[in-house]
Design brief:
5 helices, 32% helix, alpha/beta
Amino acid sequence: MPVLRSPRNASAGSSASQLPDSKLLLDENLASSLVGVLADLYPGSVHVTGVGLAAARDSAIWAYAAANGFVLVTKDEDFQRLSLLQGAPPKVVWVGLGNCSTADVEQLLRRRHGEIVQFLEHPEATFLALR
């Protein structure tokens, strides 16, 4: 079941007039090949290695995603903490599949595409856990 969390510092007057894009920034712990196989659902997505962020600190990945309108997709639980502390942007989708194949991650992101879109449209949601 997905978990939606709102930041503690969300302003009550925030507007949902600009919905975030569904382009994904895939973290290093996910295969770069996912960019190509998911391009039909998530156009404009990139992998951290493709934008010069291989082995980068979480804070650099976070800043890049926020500055460039990406949704951060990761298996790293540290981004959940950043999401709770700093809020969006960027929004974070956490893949909680443990040790799994790239095909498993692809199937998850395809099967849950509708939920991901709803999450992106929710103005206060910052973190979505998928299993």
